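Hi all, a correction to my earlier message: I attached the wrong file for Putative pisatin demethylase. Here's the right sequence:
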Amino acid sequence: MLQFCEQLEDSFINADNARKMCNLADWTSYFAWDLLSEITWSGAMGFTKTGSDIKKMSPIGKFSVMYLRLCHGSQSSSASNPYRLKTVDAVVDTEKSGLGPKNGHIASFLEAQKAYPDVVTNDNIVMHILTNDRFLATTTLFKVAAMLFRRYNVGLDELGQEWELRRHWMVYNDKTRVRIARYSVPV
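and the right structure:
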């Protein structure tokens, strides 16, 4: 987290473009995706390194989960998900897919699948990946945003405003201009 804060400070406070607007919603989302990727796949996806979404990963993850929710997450419907096969391939052969060695959180599921193939199926693993990456990234995002507010002493009460996640706020501190934008979460 400290390294992430230092990267934001270098990009938006200490740099030549110190008055540039920082979309905190995007940056906290990037950090959350990378953190969960590190835990799940044992390697960051590179969102914070590039400062942008990579290969439309965020919307693809969002819509994959929405698709599964619309289909009630049944075993047969998840097999028809167009992203399912690519995800299974990446899980089974992470080194070939460029995701690094198989020592992340997902490795324990692969070991369980070898021991109990009738109980732990590819569909179970894919559902876990999508649920873990999407929903834990969302809750992590809100926690990271709260930590950033605390670190930079950004107090909405000082501005006479209340914290509400469903609105857009412009928040200022003494060094930089920070935009706190709404992060849409499917309900």
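Sorry for the mix-up. Residues 2-180 form one domain.
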